[in-house]
Design goal:
Elements (H helix, E strand, L loop, with lengths): L12 E2 L12 E16 L1 E4 L2 E3 L10 E4 L2 E7 L4 E8 L6 E9 L9 E6 L4 E6 L8 E3 L34 E8 L5 E9 L2 E10 L4 E2 L3 E2 L7 E3 L2 E3 L2 E10 L5 E10 L2 E11 L6 E2 L5 E3 L13 E3 L12 E4 L5 E8 L16 E8 L5 E6 L15 E4 L5 E7 L2 E7 L9 E6 L3 E7 L1 H7 L1 E8 L8 E14 L2
Antiparallel strand pairs: 1-35, 2-35, 3-4, 5-6, 6-7, 7-8, 9-10, 10-11, 12-13, 13-14, 14-15, 14-16, 17-18, 19-20, 20-21, 21-24, 22-23, 25-26, 26-27, 27-28, 29-30, 30-31, 31-32, 33-34, 34-35
Length: 474
């Protein structure tokens, strides 16, 4: 397809969502699949939480792009930890299989994630945890900063380590996340402890300051909460993600899981202007720091009330748009339905809900109507949310083995959700976007694995690339 470069404000088609607004004419998004690139044959499992280990909503960064190369990590068909890279836009995948690390279980919490430190060009991997000792390895400096001259091989990477700071092992870890900072450093966020008595922890990698910092707690499990005749004395904060906005502000959102069964509540939010050291609520009030983590008693953190009998799904989607406004997507019982017993969900009566904060500080809720239709299998329905350069929104999820894209416009206050694409192909897992490529190029790369023909059998792992064309309606 011939690309059309924006020259004036009357251009009709803009490739990759170039930043332009039409004040007198409505526009709509058209999705065009550019490529479907097979990475490798990958592992699936037979476990009580599902069949997919490559492609989980809490696997925030299994794919990332930097300096015209794309990187992805996964477990291959032999259960080996693997990392692959390709030259964009359509280079052949170069694959490293780490024969010294074999994923041995059937627990699909134990995902693999990557992070790229732009300051020194190191590539970081963390993998295979569900309340376990850290598994971590890191490349030599310069590997990501000089990709065209680097021979891609496992010798570039360290052995598996149980430490970030040498001599200090890290234990009881789950849900690792790497987040690039605006100044080119790297955050490492994870859960320490159990689902009902754990803390969200953070460390900072700064190659100009001795590497990894000591970790500190962002959240605390302490405090009392009562509902339905039960009282919880501890909890954990399930993050929807941690993302920087254009101003350099770090945003997090979460729900609490209370120690009274699988009970989840509320949409909570906080932000930090110093890379996670001090935290503020939505009104700007300082609420937490390393010596006083965020807790259920922190003022102003709840931005929307979701009660424990509304069947809220956890660890879904968050994004920050070009106006520094946070957007959150969750799944819960649709308004008007009969409330559920504690700890239960009913996908047939649930809906996606979008929460967003405007520039005046007011939070809004919109229902995103879509017939999920997956019975009790909620894990296939967790969604991700993105913002376009003109601050419209896109939601991505897997429904009945199809990748579904919905959109809504800022002009209509995000109340005009509609389907803009369905990608057939018998897909498994939850589709995960390459956020760096989306921000830098306007290309939507989605990490997604094929549904296995039989549970536990390997299947192909793909990266699908889409152009989103903004067309002006007559």
């Amino acid at each position: 397809m011939k690309k059309i470069i924006q020259l004036t404000n009357i251009i009709i088609i803009i490739i990759g969502l170039a930043a332009c607004s039409f004040q007198k004419n409505e526009s709509e998004l058209k999705v065009i699949k550019v490529s479907k690139s097979r990475v490798d044959v990958a592992h699936t499992i037979e476990g009580k939480w599902g069949t997919f280990i490559n492609g989980k909503s809490y696997q925030q960064m299994p794919i990332d792009s930097y300096k015209d190369w794309q990187y992805t990590t996964y477990y291959d068909q032999k259960r080996r930890l693997s990392i692959a890279r390709r030259k964009l836009p359509d280079g052949k995948w170069q694959v490293i299989h780490f024969d010294d690390y074999i994923f041995k279980g059937n627990d699909n919490h134990n995902v693999t994630v990557l992070g790229i430190c732009q300051k020194d060009g190191t590539i970081h991997l963390s993998y295979d945890h569900h309340n376990d000792t850290l598994n971590y390895r890191v490349s030599q400096p310069g590997v990501a900063n000089n990709p065209d001259t680097i021979k891609w091989s496992k010798d570039l990477f360290s052995e598996t380590r149980d430490w970030l700071k040498k001599g200090i092992p890290i234990t009881r870890l789950t849900y690792p996340i790497f987040v690039q900072t605006p100044k080119g450093n790297l955050l490492f966020i994870n859960r320490f402890g159990t689902p009902v008595n754990g803390q969200v922890r953070l460390s900072v990698y700064d190659p100009g300051n001795k590497g990894w910092s000591d970790s500190w707690n962002l959240t605390s499990p302490e405090g009392l909460y009562s509902f339905g005749g039960k009282t919880s004395k501890s909890r954990f904060a399930y993050l929807n993600g941690a993302h920087y906005g254009p101003s350099g502000r770090l945003h997090i959102s979460w729900c609490w899981r209370e120690n009274m069964g699988s009970v989840f509540r509320n949409v909570n939010y906080a932000y930090s202007d110093d890379n996670g050291v001090q935290w503020h609520n939505s009104a700007g009030q300082k609420i937490a720091g390393p010596d006083k983590p965020i807790s259920t008693d922190s003022p102003g953190i709840k931005v929307w009330d979701v009660t424990p009998n509304q069947g809220q799904e956890v660890m879904m989607g968050q994004y920050v748009d070009g106006l520094d406004r946070p957007h959150i997507v969750i799944s819960r019982l649709r308004d008007g339905e009969e409330l559920l017993p504690l700890g239960k969900r009913d996908e047939s009566k649930s809906a996606y809900y979008h929460y967003w904060r405007d520039n005046k500080g007011t939070w809004h809720q919109n229902e995103i109507y879509y017939p999920i239709g997956m019975g009790a299998d909620s894990e296939r329905n967790r969604a991700k949310i993105l913002s376009t350069p003109n601050n419209d929104l896109i939601v991505i999820f897997n429904n009945q083995t199809k990748i579904v894209l919905l959109s809504a416009t800022a002009k209509n206050q995000f109340q005009d959700w509609k389907v803009i694409h369905k990608e057939d192909g018998s897909w498994d897992g939850e589709p995960l976007p390459d956020l760096s490529r989306w921000r830098e190029e306007g290309i939507l790369s989605i990490y997604m694995q094929k549904d296995p023909s039989k549970s536990g059998e390997p299947s192909d792992l793909y990266v699908l690339d889409f152009n989103l064309l903004e067309t002006r309606k007559n």
